[in-house]
């Protein structure tokens, strides 16, 4: 009962603070609703980025990978720091200079409207079909299991799952659809503090459990017992081969942190470039600390349970149940609920933005006033949320499905990233090259991963999908550059300054960014065996 009270209390506190922080925001305009009135500051941006990125799949899944493979899986976190630095220095100034609300908006200016529409459609398909149902399902499994909802309510496991799915879906929809971006990022920032505190409690109590009450003794025991598991370069056959960090891993990270609407929308809402860059750099530093929450508990669980768990995905929840004091379970559940909610409402808000700006305003009603665009964006968001809530219970195995979907995300991630990079780095590549780039990139990836890999060469002998991403990225860029050489634009593209916000950069952005990159490299060197 104490756990439920602390859970409800913390969740209600977040909702109340979010309401008072956003009640004066003008949400009748596109900027007000979709970008929080372009008023977001560094701390809010960093907190929202952190919570948007974290979800139950990552908290449970990455710790499960660490349970299985050790420290090498930290690449998913540490390399993200470098990708965020690149976004802060290179991409964000161009985004804010162009005054865009969505990433596809730039593609309309640089190439044409058709390119923008295709890209928005790919983003929406990925969000609606892939992310929303999986977030709802896996989050509901975690909450239902943590509070033992079937026993508490006297219902079946399936009924409890459906109740949790609809509970998370409805609350997330209220934040994302009716509150706009500012409500999302304010609630994210509060939950970010809770996640950092709650997330750090797990490795602390875990190390104390294996170190006879001492954290430092526990860390010494952990490193002495299995020193090979602290190798940052890993071993052949692991989930993240070391070579992939020099190929597709960085491309995936740059796409996610630099061009993914779900993520970059927080920085697009910055009050000025300096605040946006400071927010990204703060988030980058926090990602360096990410392995303490997302990798270390899995390694502790391997030692604590002596590698005897039936499934690696059970490492994190089993460790939480084993070492966390009972009075703190409710608070931790509330923090986890915040992470689930953040992922759901962030994807939903981005979907609403893409539909309202790039679909409704562009193709359905070009003359629509901004208030009407926001109205129909909200209606679309409600429909998406309902669809996700109906689809989510149909997912049979969230963890394996999520891994599979991570791989098929390459169908659209690398093609989109390649045309954005070519768009910014060149002036003469035409719109037809971007269209061919998206289509060829997607088709070649499908052929590679779903025809050649299983039926021609065999999965065991085939290159890692991150290497495939790198190969196809280079090929895609070369195709577009060749088309640009043969059929250049009639007039070179020039990025115009829209005066939406000040684009004076943070004066220490290069120095701080370099320091973060040095720290990441130093971590790899220190733990390399």
Automatic annotation (TrEMBL):
Location of the protein in the cell? Membrane
Transmembrane regions: 6-22, 34-54, 74-96, 117-139, 159-178, 190-210, 240-259, 280-305, 328-355, 376-396, 408-425, 432-452, 464-487, 508-527
Identify a single GO molecular function assigned to this protein: D-glucose:sodium symporter activity
Question: Main localization of the protein?
Answer: membrane
- Cross-referenced PROSITE patterns, in alphabetical order? NA_SOLUT_SYMP_3
Family indicated by similarity: Belongs to the sodium:solute symporter (SSF) (TC 2.A.21) family.
Q: Which NCBIfam families match?
A: PRK10484.1 (NF007790), sss (TIGR00813)
Q: What is this protein called?
A: Solute:Na+ symporter, SSS family
**Species this chain originates from:** Cellulophaga baltica
For this protein's source organism, the top of the classification is: Bacteria, Pseudomonadati, Bacteroidota, Flavobacteriia, Flavobacteriales
